[in-house]
C-alpha cells in the first residue's frame, strides 16, 4: 500500500497541492515560534527575554498545532471525498478497508514530510524576523542571538506528520459512511466546549478592572464557544437552511446543494466561525485595553506589551491559516463540480445562472459562519468590556467586526466565484463526458 501511495502521488500530484501547502505553512509557523524555545534556552539569556520568548512559543505554538490539524483535515477530507469512485474500484479489486486506510495515510504522511522539509528555510528566516520584532519593541535584549535548534525542528516535523496521519485516518473513516457514530463523537466535545466556554466568560466577573489576567477568561471562553459551534457546523447549517427565505431558481438550487453537501462543507463553515470569533474578540478586547491604558496615562509594562504582541500575532497566524483553509477547501470543492456545472448548462442554465447559484451558496456560508462566530465573540467581549470600562458593547467592536466580515466575504465569495468561472470555461459536453 505504501508503494501504491507513492505511485498515486507521482501520477496525480495536483490533487495533493492543497495538503502540501497546508503542511508547509503549518510546519513553517510551528518551527518559527518554537525556535523561540531554542533561543530562550541559550546560556546567558536574561530572565525577562527568556520569559517573553517562551511565552510566545508556547501560546502561538499551541494555536498553531490546532490550526495545522484543522487545515490539513479540511483539505484531506475534500480530497478523500473526491476519490470515492477510485476507492470503490480498489475495494472491488480486492483491497481491504485497512489497506485503503494505510494507502491514504501513507500519501498524507509523505506529502506532510515534504511540506515540513520545505518549511525549514522559511522558518529560520521567520524566526530571525520575529526575534528582531521583540528586540525592536524592547521585550528582548539586543544581545540575544537567534538559535534554530532541536525543539523547532522536532516539533515542526512531529506535529505536522501526526496531524497529517490523524486527519487522513479520520477522513477515510468519514468516507466510510459512519455518519451516526461521527455525529455522536462530535456532540460530546461540542457541548463540553460550549459549557467550558460559558464558564470561562462568566468567570470574567470575578476579576477586577486592572487585573493583569482579565483578558484571559473571556478570550479563551470565546475560543471555546466558537469551537463548540464549529463542531456543530453541519447541524447549524441545516437549521439555518430550513428557515432561509431564498427565492428564484438560483436560491432554490443553492439551498438544495448546501443541504445535500452540509457534511462536506463543515470544514469551510468551521473555518469561518473560528476566524470570526477569535479575530473579532481578540482585536476588540486588545483595542479596549490599549485605549483604557492610554486614557489613564499609564505606561504599558513588559507583560502588557507581550500580551499585545501575542494577540496580534495569534490573529495574524489565524488569518493566514483560515485563508489557506478556505481557499484550498473551496477551490477543491468547486473545481470538483465541473460535471455538475456542465449538466446544469445542458439542461438550459446560463453561465450567469450557474455563477448565481455558487454566489448564493457562498453568501449563505458566509452569513452563517459570521453569525455564529459573532455570537461567540460577543460572549467574550461583553463581560470584558463591562468589567474593564463599565460599558457593554465597546465602540471599537463595530470597526473590527466590519474588517473581519470583509475578509470572510472576500475569501469565500471570491474563491468560489473565481473557481466556478474557471470551471465554466470547459464546454458543457466535454465537462460531462470527461468527468463521467
UniProtKB/TrEMBL annotation:
Source organism, top-level taxon: Bacteria
Transmembrane segments: 57-78, 108-131, 151-172, 188-207, 219-241, 262-283, 310-333, 354-386, 398-420
Predominant subcellular localization, coarse grouping: membrane
Keyword Cell membrane appears in the UniProt entry: yes
Gene Ontology CC, one term: plasma membrane
InterPro entries in alphabetical order: ABC3_permease_C, Macrolide_Exporter_MacB
Residue ranges of domain ABC3 transporter permease C-terminal in the record: 64-175, 314-427
Gene Ontology molecular function, alphabetical: transmembrane transporter activity
Membrane topology term: Multi-pass membrane protein
Keywords (A to Z) from UniProt: Cell membrane, Membrane, Transmembrane, Transmembrane helix
Protein name: Transporter
Originating organism: Streptomyces qaidamensis
Amino acid at each position: 500500500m505504501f508503494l501504491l501511495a507513492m505511485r498515486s502521488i507521482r501520477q496525480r500530484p495536483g490533487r495533493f497541492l492543497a495538503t502540501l501547502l497546508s503542511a508547509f505553512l503549518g510546519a513553517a509557523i510551528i518551527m518559527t515560534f518554537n525556535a523561540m524555545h531554542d533561543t530562550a534556552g541559550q546560556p546567558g539569556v536574561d530572565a525577562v527575554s527568556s520569559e517573553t520568548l517562551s511565552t510566545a512559543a508556547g501560546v502561538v505554538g499551541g494555536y498553531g498545532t490546532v490550526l495545522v490539524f484543522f487545515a490539513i483535515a479540511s483539505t484531506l477530507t475534500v480530497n478523500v471525498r473526491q476519490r470515492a469512485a477510485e476507492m470503490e474500484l480498489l475495494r472491488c479489486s480486492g483491497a481491504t478497508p485497512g489497506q485503503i486506510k494505510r494507502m491514504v495515510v501513507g500519501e498524507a504522511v509523505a506529502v506532510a514530510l515534504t511540506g515540513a522539509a520545505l518549511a525549514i528555510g522559511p522558518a529560520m528566516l521567520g524566526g530571525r524576523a520575529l526575534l528582531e520584532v521583540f528586540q525592536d519593541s524592547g521585550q528582548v535584549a539586543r544581545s540575544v542571538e537567534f538559535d534554530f535548534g532541536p525543539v523547532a525542528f522536532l516539533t515542526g516535523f512531529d506535529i505536522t506528520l501526526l496531524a497529517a496521519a490523524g486527519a487522513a485516518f479520520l477522513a477515510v473513516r468519514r468516507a466510510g459512511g459512519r455518519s451516526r457514530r461521527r455525529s455522536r463523537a462530535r456532540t460530546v466535545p461540542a457541548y463540553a466546549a460550549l459549557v467550558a466556554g460559558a464558564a470561562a466568560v462568566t468567570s470574567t466577573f470575578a476579576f477586577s478592572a486592572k487585573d493583569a489576567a482579565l483578558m484571559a477568561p473571556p478570550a479563551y471562553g470565546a475560543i471555546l464557544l466558537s469551537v463548540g459551534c464549529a463542531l456543530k457546523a453541519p447541524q447549524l447549517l441545516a437549521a439555518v437552511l430550513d428557515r432561509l427565505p431564498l427565492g428564484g431558481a438560483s436560491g432554490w438550487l443553492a439551498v438544495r446543494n448546501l443541504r445535500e453537501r452540509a457534511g462536506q462543507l463543515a470544514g469551510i463553515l468551521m473555518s469561518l466561525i473560528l476566524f470570526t470569533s477569535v479575530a473579532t474578540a481578540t482585536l476588540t478586547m486588545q483595542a479596549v485595553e490599549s485605549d483604557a491604558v492610554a486614557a489613564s496615562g499609564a505606561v504599558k509594562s513588559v507583560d502588557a506589551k507581550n500580551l499585545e504582541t501575542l494577540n496580534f500575532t495569534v490573529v495574524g497566524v489565524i488569518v493566514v491559516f483560515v485563508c489557506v483553509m478556505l481557499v484550498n477547501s473551496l477551490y477543491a470543492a468547486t473545481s470538483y463540480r465541473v460535471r455538475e456545472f456542465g449538466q446544469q448548462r445542458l439542461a438550459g442554465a446560463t453561465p450567469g445562472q450557474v455563477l448565481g447559484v455558487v454566489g448564493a451558496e457562498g453568501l449563505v456560508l458566509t452569513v452563517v459562519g459570521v453569525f455564529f462566530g459573532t455570537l461567540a465573540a460577543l460572549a467574550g467581549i461583553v463581560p470584558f468590556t463591562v468589567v474593564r470600562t463599565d460599558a457593554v458593547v465597546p465602540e471599537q467592536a463595530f470597526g473590527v467586526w466590519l474588517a473581519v466580515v470583509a475578509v470572510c466575504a472576500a475569501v469565500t465569495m471570491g474563491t468560489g466565484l473565481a473557481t466556478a468561472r474557471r470551471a465554466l470555461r470547459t464546454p458543457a459536453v466535454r465537462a460531462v463526458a470527461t468527468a463521467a
